[in-house]
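Record type: monomer structure entry
Structure origin: computed from sequence
Chain ID: A
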Amino acid sequence: MILHESIFVTAIAGFTGLIFSMGLLELVGPHVEVDYVMNPSVDFNVALITVFVLIAAGAIAGFFPAWRAANIHVIDALRDE
């Protein structure tokens, strides 16, 4: 459950950042005289690889807390207040 949540939160944060940055480029892009800002483009393969790297980073970030939680005995977790 912890691993699933970490992947979900990482994916939502990544997609939100992607949408925010695209909106920011649409607003600021015409006022900047640099070519790669005025005409941004991303290959679909690069975007797909980025999504998989994002999911892998979320899985790695959530693995260690999930592993630690799985090794705690239930009675010890309930006793610790």
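Annotation 1: The mean pLDDT is 79.
Annotation 2: The chain has four helices and no strands.
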